[in-house]
Amino acid sequence: MPHFWEHTIGSGHATLGLRADWQAQLKRTHDELGMRYVRFHGILCDEMGTLIGEGTTLFYSFFNADLIFDFLRSIGMRPFVELSFMPSVLASGDRTVFHYRANISPPKDYAQWAVLIRKLVSHWVGRYGLDEVRQWFFEVWNEPNLTAFGSGKQSDYFELYRYTAKAIKGVDKLLRVGGPATADNAWIGDFLNFCRTSALPADFVSTHHYPTDDFGQPGDDTEAQLAASKRSALREEARGARKQAGDVPLYYTEWCTSSNPRDPLHDDPYAAAFIVKTVLEATGLVQGYSYWTFSDIFEENFFPSLPFQGGFGLLNIHGIAKPAYRAFQLLHEVGTEMLPVEGAHETVDAWFVRGDRASTLILTNFALPRHPIETEEVLFTLKAASSATSACVQRIDAEHANAKRRWEEMGKPEYLDAPTVDELKNISELRSEPVATKSEAGSLVLKIALPPLSVAAIRLANT
Question: Taking the complete model, does pTM exceed 0.90, yes or no?
Answer without folding.
Answer: yes
